[in-house]
Amino acid sequence: MTKQRTPIIDNHGRPLTYVRLAVTDRCNLRCFYCMPAEGIDYLPKKQLLTYEEMERMLQVLASLGISKVRITGGEPFLRKDLIYFLQQVKAIPGIEEIHITTNGVLTEPYIEDLVKLGIKSVNLSLDTLDRERFFKITRRDEFEKVMQTYYALLDSQIPVKINAVVMENQNIADIVPLAALTKDYPVSVRFIEEMPFNGEGQHYPVLTWNYRKIIQELQTAFPDLYKVSDDLHSTANHYAIPGYKGNIGVIAAFSRTFCGTCNRIRVTAQGGLKTCLYGNDVLNVKDILRSGTSNATLIEELLRTFNSRAKNGYEAEAQRPSLLSIFESMSSIGG
C-alpha cells in the first residue's frame, strides 16, 4: 500500500495526521478522574480489536496520511505481547512516530525494548508526588513503582512527559512540586483540566481550576515563568522557567481552546472511531474489518467520516443523542 504524502484534510480544513489507539479498556488503577472506585464493566476479549485488526487499520490510516500513533488504554502494558505489536506498527510504511501513554505501574521492565523500538516519547500519568495523595487519587498503593519507572525513563533518555490532571480538593498542593521537576530534568510537565470522563460525570458544578487559574498558580510560584513556542497542533500552551531544563504545559482539555488546530482521531479498544473526544463513536471500524470488506471500502467509510467532523468539542458534545452519554470512562474512550 502506497503512503499518501498529503494528509487528509477534514471539512474544516484541518489535516489529520495523528491517531490515538487504545489497545485495551482495562486498567490496574482506579483514578478518581477516570472511573468509579468499583471500576467499569470490561468487555470480553472477543469484543476488542485483535492486534491483526489494529495493524490492518493502521496500514489503511497510514495510506491516508496518518504518520503519528499514540498507544493508550486503559493501561496498555496490561495487554499481552504489546512489544510484539509495537514492532509490527513500527514496520508499517508511513508511520513515522510511535508514542505511548502509561500509568507506569508495569512499564519499567519494558523500557529497554522501548528504546530499541525508537519510541518517540512516553507520557507518564502522575498527578502527585505524595504517596498518600497518590493512593487517595488512584485507590491503589503503586506510587513507588511509578516513580521507579519515571527515573528509569529519564535514564533511558526517552523523552518524558508527565500528565497531571488538576483536581480541586485532591492535588492542588502538587502543582508547584510537579512543576519544579523541570529544574533538574528535561521533562515536560503538563497540567490538564479535569474532564467529566470518569464514569460518574462532572465532579463540580463549575470547573474552578481551569487553565487560566492553573497558569496563575504557576506564575505566583514562579514569577519568571515565560511563554515558549508551541507546535502547530499542540494541545498544550507551553511555558518555561529561566535556568530550568524542562518545560511546563497547560492543557485546556475541558475549556477546549485548541480545537481549531486538532489533527487527531481516536480509536477505542472496541474499534470505535472518534473524531472528537467529546463526541460519540462515528464509525465502527471493528465491524467493517470483520465483515470481510476490502480496504478500499474501509477507506471510503473513513473519508466520509472525516468529511463530517465536528468543528469543535462543543459541537461534538451537542451532537450526542443524550448529553448523559458523556459520562463514560476515559478508560473506555482511550486515554
Average pLDDT, all residues: 91
Q: Regarding CATH, which class?
A: Alpha Beta
Discrete helix count: 11
Question: How many β-strand stretches?
Answer: 14
Structure description:
With 335 residues, this protein is α/β, with parallel strands linked by helices. It has a single domain, classed as Alpha-Beta Barrel (TIM Barrel), CATH 3.20.20. It has 11 helices and 14 strands. The strands form 2 sheets. A 12-stranded mixed sheet has the order 9-10-11-8-7-6-5-4-3-12-13-14. The chain has a two-stranded antiparallel ribbon with strand order 1-2. The model has no long low-confidence stretch (mean pLDDT 91). Pfam families: Mob_synth_C, Radical_SAM. One of its GO terms (molecular function) is GTP 3',8'-cyclase activity. This is GTP 3',8-cyclase.
Give a short synopsis of this structure.
With 335 residues, this protein is α/β, with parallel strands linked by helices. The protein has helices spanning 51-63, 82-90, 111-117, 131-138, 143-156, 175-180, 211-221, 285-290, 295-306, 313-318, 330-333; strands at residues 8-9, 15-16, 18-22, 68-72, 97-102, 121-125, 160-166, 188-193, 226-227, 236-240, 247-251, 264-267, 272-274, 283-284.
